[in-house]
Automatic annotation (TrEMBL):
Residues 22-31 have a biased composition (Acidic residues). GO terms for molecular function: ubiquitin protein ligase activity; zinc ion binding. It comes from Nadsonia fulvescens var. elongata DSM 6958. This is RBR-type E3 ubiquitin transferase. InterPro entries: Ariadne (IPR045840), ARIH1-like_UBL (IPR048962), E3_UB_ligase_RBR (IPR031127), IBR_dom (IPR002867), TRIAD_supradom (IPR044066), Znf_RING (IPR001841), Znf_RING/FYVE/PHD (IPR013083), Znf_RING_CS (IPR017907). Residues 139-353, 143-192 form the RING-type domain. The lineage of its organism: Eukaryota, Fungi, Dikarya, Ascomycota, Saccharomycotina. It catalyses: [E2 ubiquitin-conjugating enzyme]-S-ubiquitinyl-L-cysteine + [acceptor protein]-L-lysine = [E2 ubiquitin-conjugating enzyme]-L-cysteine + [acceptor protein]-N(6)-ubiquitinyl-L-lysine. GO terms for biological process: protein ubiquitination.
Amino acid sequence: MSDFDYNDNEAPYSDFEFSDQSFDDTEDNNDEIGYSSTDDGSAFDDDDIYGPRADTRKIYETDHKALTKTDLFDICQSLIDDAHSILSLPKDTIATLLQTFNWRRDNLIERYMEDPDKVLSTSGVIDKPTTFQFETAESGYMCYICCEDTPNMELLRLGCNHRACRSCFKYYTEQKINEEGTSKDLRCPNENCTFVIPDSAIKVLVTIDVYNKYKDLSLKSFVRSRNSIKWCPYPDCDSAVECLVRDYELKTTVPSVTCANGHSFCFGCSLEDHQPCLCALVKLWLQKSQDDSETANWIKANTKECSKCHAPIEKNGGCNHMKCKTCRHEFCWICMGDWIKHGQAYYNCSRYDDKDSKESREAISDSRHSLERYLHYFNRYANHEQSARLDKKTYIMVVKKSKVLQESIGMSWIQAQFLSQSFKILHQARKTLKWSYAFAYYLEKSHVTTIFEDNQSDLEFAVEQLSELFEMDASEIADRKVQLLDKCSYVGKRRIKLIEEAAKGLSAEEWKYVVDF
């Protein structure tokens, strides 16, 4: 077992997971010797991680590497081994030093060479071969923590020479791990002592479950220190992804990545894969939809806007003389013109075509048009989002139909998998369409936007046709298998075409937006 090994008990997965591979039924230190803000957080250079870049990579694809927990522990162990071979310090000590330096190996080595004593003292370690040992208490010894003086009780002595009974050390470390959720700075319990309890001591002190939690916390600390590594955001997924996308690249690319468990997500914002919409636009869209969507339809149907401040106003009486409670502006409900210019025509507006009232109506018309435009895109976005939520029901139906095929006509399990694969294509296409409407909302009208909307419309139509095919009876599936597969192939190609053309526009910076971000 390696020095940084882990007992990996796989977490159970739900019976229904939107995996893009299959549809199976079944803490930062910024002190003077710690993290360097100029470090990009990558443990390796590009070739070390991915090998030579392939010319066959599609323009909408992002170089990345899926990492399991074992992979992450191997990376940590490799960093420990490398630093150990240069500094010749115990591996326990190296592990503690690397955590202090946020796993920046080169930064640690450089600073240690400059002032080893300062690095060691600040990190809470000492340069000695043995960092802890167990011993038997001499006659008359009393533990300073629990005040027990049991003869021949087992003690733990740390490298700082402070000692206490083993049970007290066990309770102390388990409390730190379980209650405080910390893996860094597990220091000697003696007051004012900064010595860090080494990993090897924790391993023999606590139970295997607590030790595994400690290693998980250490791993989370490691991942937080790497700008190039992120956990998969899917529930109960313990996989991570390494990707070298930089912040400035997020204005021209959507870094879609896939973890070892087949979950696709955006590396830039850790939300679901939202190609072709940029991360910044996704953030704007989600904020706007949360603020506007629930009330927009009612406001549109039941209110008018103040012609001065555009606050929504509901008419609750027969009089056309309106006073805005927000800005106190007085206007006519019929023509939206300034009320002062109405004279005595309080109940009968005869000035509809007057220039002043026309300008007021045009201003409100622009605002209404903006709302109608938003609702056009939001309703289509929401429709596909709702369809995605209903996918679980559809998928269960697909699984049942697959079983019917196997039982009724003797189709093998492998042969029946075309249904699950077809459904995967439908699910991916719906997700792409959903985010394509958020993207289109922020685009300025141009010839490239028109082409994008044509591709979008084509995919929309094909998706609805494919969705209808899933409604067929199980008895029809075998006879219409070719039709289903042909439509799946078309939907898949049109989806790729949509995100590919969008990615080309992003890369060439051809898209123009109606907002700044």
